[in-house]
Design goal:
The protein has 19 helices and 24 strands. The protein has about 650 residues and is an alpha/beta fold. The strands form four sheets. Strands 3-2-4-1-10-9-11-15 form an eight-stranded antiparallel beta sheet, with helices on one face. Helix 7 runs parallel beside helix 13. The termini are close together. The structure holds 5-amino-5-deoxy-1-O-phosphono-D-mannitol. 5-amino-5-deoxy-1-O-phosphono-D-mannitol binds next to helix 9 and helix 16.
């Protein structure tokens, strides 16, 4: 989703902004732009639809050293943006930064201004002319209008104008703003969209040698400094040579609490793979090892959900007490995280014997859900910034539920707002298409389920030991699943021009079918649906013919024969049925049922999603790759969905 960067300091602003925007590219975007002031304090704004490279080319053709020599204050100050279109097409004009009529203020925005239409009409009535179709432009025009109506001689005056503007704006936003009258300051605001400020001391001891980087994500700041201020909602910040000024929407002064964050620079390295997605699929064995490390020591030790160092701390006792008294779990998430939640439901209900509901966070947040103090809400989000998941979590907490988060980004809003977490240890996931984070989320849910079953003694201890032993074997089994991609490549090549596909499975692999279909849709743009195989005859069977591939996940378990019967019913309607299987199949029956069979390592059926997901990820990857799609940054999608 949109990414904001801002810089104030003594270094040349363009390279820093481009480098910072590049670290945010993984979020997904469709245009980019920058704005800065030259030595005469004139604004320069450059914007280009498409990839960041287009903006870089434009800048290379246009910029001269004189233009980029800093502004009238002797500092370099700039803002930059990658845009994910919500209001108005993805073109140069709608790209950010946006400016007011008088070209006095430039602004970048992440989020949605819900009452933009009313603000725009009121400003047009006052003679302001809008150039873009965006919701964002109304904010900068309103700032400029108020700056013409209110005193605007000092930085304090402009702070008051920002506050007045925000009183009139509804919606979700992170903003970064430059006013040409105050060239030695950079302003920013956060409200329901992430924003962080990094402070670096270029020359320790000399206060005028501070520099600041503002960004939507700490990964863009990590190359410059580890001192980070995580803004909270409704906070307004401005930075300059004399430091950080922080206040709330009423102008009340706040003390900036900077934290030292040990986050290395984002490794934007494909490590020899053609795409990040393929690299991240191949990282899964290590992700599982890492996720189990320190938590699952051996099959006979109880699961440790919290780090070793907290073993004797009250946190462990509190968590154990909570997990013992919980009578119902509600899991919320979106997209892939939602699918991981569904896998968790099968696993946890089986072992813990309490009801587990899984709900799309976007639906949950607008319902009037039933919650009590024995409900544990489990919020799953790779990014920890998904607007729907954040709001659903806050809603449940308000209603009295305890909240446990499963996120890959402990520095995210979700991670920072939660007091109970099972961190996901997937490492930074760059490809928009979630792969290794799905696997790591499932591991986190399995560990939660095992820990609860142990504490509540709700499952046979031998069964729990067997599952733990099985989990420890998973990394090697995923390695084996990854070691021979050729049959999957052949299937992908054969079917990549299909317009539709079905993914079917039973039981705990039903969510794997949903996830397989989601992967294919999002990176190849082929229409795909995931179904429980038992549902085929209730509707989808009507569309089966020899143009339709059906990808079936077939595992060893009580429903194996029923699954094969469902596949035979599809085959009888001329559909092409391809099996991804870890089951021991009768060879004659298999040959009569399946057009191709891709064998996978066998494990306990409850653990099988960890393995059966892998061939479906590879299938989607190779189909998209053969179609020449932009695998890592599929059209219209964002890695971090910070708007509703
Ligand atoms: O960061 P989150 O896990 O909260 O993101 C939720 C979805 O937007 C995300 O899983 C999306 O469906 C992925 N692109 C799927 O690959």
């Amino acid at each position: 989703m949109c990414g904001i960067v801002g810089y104030l300091g003594k270094r040349s602003v363009i390279p820093i902004m481009i480098e910072s925007l590049r670290t945010l590219e993984y979020r997904g975007y469709d245009s980019a732009g920058v704005a800065f002031l030259d030595p005469q304090n004139a604004f320069h704004v450059y914007k280009a639809a498409g990839k960041l490279m287009n903006l870089e080319q434009l800048l290379a053709q246009t910029l001269t050293p004189a233009m980029t020599a800093g502004n009238a204050s002797g500092l370099h100050v700039g803002i930059g943006h990658i845009r994910w279109a919500t209001h108005g097409a993805a073109n140069d004009i709608n790209a950010h930064p946006h400016m007011g009529d008088q070209q006095e203020i430039a602004l970048v925005h992440n989020g949605i201004i819900e009452n933009y239409y009313e603000i725009k009409q009121a400003l047009q009535a006052k003679g302001r002319s809008f150039v873009s179709d965006t919701d964002t432009e109304c904010v900068v025009q309103l700032l400029e209008q108020l700056a013409s109506e209110m005193p605007c001689e000092t930085v304090d005056d402009f702070r008051a104008i920002i506050r007045e503007t925000l009183q009139r704006v509804e919606g979700a936003y992170a903003l970064s703003i430059i006013h040409k009258r105050f060239p030695a300051r950079l302003f920013a605001v956060r409200h329901h969209a992430p924003l962080v400020v990094g402070e670096a001391f270029v020359d320790k001891g000399r206060s005028d040698e501070r520099e600041y980087v503002i960004a939507s994500d700490a990964v863009a700041i990590a190359p410059h400094t580890q001192r980070i201020l995580f803004l909270r909602d409704q906070e307004i910040v401005d930075v300059g040579p004399d430091g950080i000024h922080l206040c709330d929407l009423d102008g009340g002064a706040l003390t900036p609490e900077l934290e030292t964050v040990n986050m290395g620079p984002l490794q934007i390295d494909k490590k020899g793979f053609k795409h990040f997605m393929l690299k991240e699929i191949h990282e899964q064995p290590d992700v599982v090892r890492n996720s189990l490390s320190g938590r699952l020591l051996d099959p006979h030790h109880p699961i440790r959900l919290l780090p070793l160092e907290s073993e004797d701390s009250p946190a462990v006792e509190q968590l154990e007490a909570l997990l013992k008294k919980t009578s119902r779990l509600v899991i919320v998430g979106c997209g892939t995280s939602y699918n991981a939640g569904l896998v968790g439901k099968y696993f946890i209900e089986d072992l813990v014997r309490i009801p587990v509901e899984v709900e799309s966070a976007g639906e949950y947040r607008y319902r009037n859900p039933i919650v009590d103090e024995n409900t544990l809400l489990v919020a799953i989000s790779q990014s920890g910034e998904t607007a729907d998941t954040l709001q659903a979590t806050r809603q449940a907490a308000r209603l009295g539920a305890r909240v446990l988060t499963i996120t890959n980004r402990e520095d995210s809003t979700l991670g920072r707002e939660s007091d109970l977490a099972v961190p996901v240890r997937a490492g930074v996931e760059v490809s928009v298409c979630a792969t290794k984070s799905f696997t790591a989320q499932i591991i986190a849910l399995y560990l939660l389920g095992l820990a609860m079953a142990e504490l509540r003694q709700s499952a046979d201890p031998q069964r729990l030991s067997d599952l733990k032993a099985g989990l420890l074997r998973i990394p090697a089994q995923i390695e084996s699943a990854l070691s021979a991609p050729e049959p999957i490549q052949a299937i992908a090549r054969h079917f990549c021009s299909t317009r539709n596909a079905l993914f079917i499975a039973r039981g705990i692999n039903f969510p794997v079918a949903l996830e397989g279909a989601l992967k294919l849709k999002e990176i190849s743009y082929i229409h795909a649906e995931g179904y429980s195989a038992s549902e085929l005859k209730h509707g989808p069977i009507a569309m089966l013919d020899d143009s339709l591939p059906i990808f079936a996940v077939v595992t060893q378990g009580p429903l194996l024969e029923k699954m094969i019967s469902n596949c035979q019913e599809a085959k009888a309607r001329d559909a092409h049925v391809i099996a991804f299987t870890s089951a021991t199949l009768d060879s004659n029956k298999a040959a009569q049922t399946f057009e191709s069979i891709v064998a996978m390592p066998q494990t306990d059926e409850l653990l099988s999603p960890l393995i059966m997901t892998v061939p479906l990820q590879l299938l989607a990857y190779y189909m998209a790759e053969y179609l020449g799609k932009d695998v890592d940054q599929p059209r219209n999608l964002a890695k971090s969905v910070t708007v509703e």
